[in-house]
Amino acid sequence: MSAETRPIPASQFALAIRDLPLETIYTKAHEIQNSISHLQRSNAQLKEYSDSIRNDGTLSGEVREQVGDRECLEAIEENERVIARQRERVGLLRAEVERRGRVWHEGDDEDDEEKSNGDATGQSNGVNGSGGKLSDEELRRQMMDRIGDEDDDDDGGEGGLHL
């Protein structure tokens, strides 16, 4: 068995998500965005560490060059490759949602978690459970279903919505 695992190609990922429920697609997008955020924070810490080694006058120039820059920069470069792959995955998830005729609502895909009004399932005000926004007619129909017929009320004919 190989010590190194390889991510599935983008074409296989796109094929694999075709049958997933929209809720799962949005959950996966949230997980990937979370991973991207962690990698970006890690890169910032690696760069800070590398800079501190490079600027440490108590170390020899050879140590500063070998330890600080090389290893940290390699890790940063690998993280950047992973981030690029993950952003591609989010783009594929978005394309799948749009292929189904739905509206993608996770913001601009990158670093927009704060802008999202919903949770990972895509549920928020004005958003239906399948990830799309409700039309005025659909919202009216759902409200009428919840209110029910006024004739069926046991409130003595007062009508209205009771919370």
UniProtKB/TrEMBL annotation:
Residues 148-157 have a biased composition (Acidic residues). InterPro entries: TMA17. Residues 118-127 have a biased composition (Polar residues). One of its GO terms (molecular function) is protein-macromolecule adaptor activity. One of its GO terms (biological process) is proteasome regulatory particle assembly. Residues 134-147 have a biased composition (Basic and acidic residues). Residues 100-163 are annotated as: Disordered. It comes from the Eukaryota. This is Uncharacterized protein. It comes from Cyphellophora attinorum. The lineage of its organism: Eukaryota, Fungi, Dikarya, Ascomycota, Pezizomycotina.
